[in-house]
Specification:
By secondary structure, this protein is of the alpha+beta class. The chain has one domain (16-235): Alpha-Beta Plaits, CATH 3.30.70. 35% of the residues lie in helices and 15% in strands. It is built from seven helices and eight strands, in the order αβαβαβββαβαββαα. Strands 2, 3, 4, 5, 6 and 8 form a six-stranded antiparallel beta sheet that branches. β3 (95-103) and β4 (106-107) form a beta hairpin. It is globular. 31% of the residues are buried.
């Protein structure tokens, strides 16, 4: 198991905010990022990655820290080194993610040794190299941890046409009951320390609002979502 250094222990002070559901802003960002924005910016998700952090650390509190370091220090460097050419830099790293802490469809409200935190991670990898799934899995094992990880820690699937909508529903199943507009089959997904869900900057709210303005797109307001929650048997969303 991973042993924390002093710097990581200090960083854990920022991750004691425990979340039990995906709240409105994160649900909205994830919903539109996966549903349309990634394709609008020509960075469609083509790989679905699941990482079992139970096999990496017994301390559920530090999982978001490990993931943040993984994105910043390893994944980003590997991505731009792999997909950039001598004449052209790779497009921005594009991803969306969420955590869950559950086992056999039952939420786990513990971040100790009995946690079962999994990360679900969508990413766009350019077709500049023909990478096999086994190759990508091996690469992610190396950049995810400084030591060998047990078999089954990382699972990678190719995203095929038509499957993204089901993946989005799967990722959003942990939304707060007040956010049924984004997923009407919400289920508790246990405790997570720190940020529960998010996207890369190019799929974030700021860029989405900019693109919406250019395309005259109006998104549902919280007031409309409240109306939907109260009348969801009468109101059918089109997004």
């Amino acid at each position: 198991m991973l042993i924390l250094n002093k710097r990581l222990k200090k960083m854990t002070n920022n991750y004691y905010n425990i979340s039990k559901t995906i709240k409105y802003k994160s649900a909205q960002t994830l919903y539109y990022a996966i549903g349309e924005l990634s394709e609008t910016i020509n960075q469609p998700f083509n790989y679905f990655i699941t990482i079992n952090f139970k096999n990496i650390t017994d301390d559920g509190y530090i999982v978001p820290i490990l993931f943040a370091k993984f994105r910043r220090d390893k994944l980003s460097k590997w991505y731009y080194r792999t997909f950039s050419t001598k004449t052209q830099k790779a497009p921005p790293l594009t991803y969306a993610y969420c955590f869950e802490n559950a086992l056999n469809k039952q939420p786990i409200y513990s971040l100790g040794h009995d946690h079962n935190i999994h990360l679900h991670f969508l990413i766009h990898l350019p077709d500049l190299h023909l990478l096999e799934l086994d190759d990508i899995e091996e690469i992610f094992e190396k950049i995810c941890s400084s030591h060998s990880v047990p078999a089954g820690t990382i699972h990678i699937e190719k995203i095929w046409n038509g499957s993204l909508k089901n993946i989005r529903k799967y990722l959003l199943k942990g939304v707060d009951p007040s956010c049924q507009y984004f997923c009407n089959d919400n289920q508790p997904q246990g405790d997570i320390a720190g940020k529960r869900a998010g996207t890369s900057r190019n799929l974030g709210p700021k860029n989405r609002r900019k693109i919406d303005k250019l395309n005259n797109i109006t998104r549902p307001t919280p007031q409309l979502l409240n109306y939907f929650n109260q009348n969801n048997s009468k109101y059918k969303k089109t997004g």
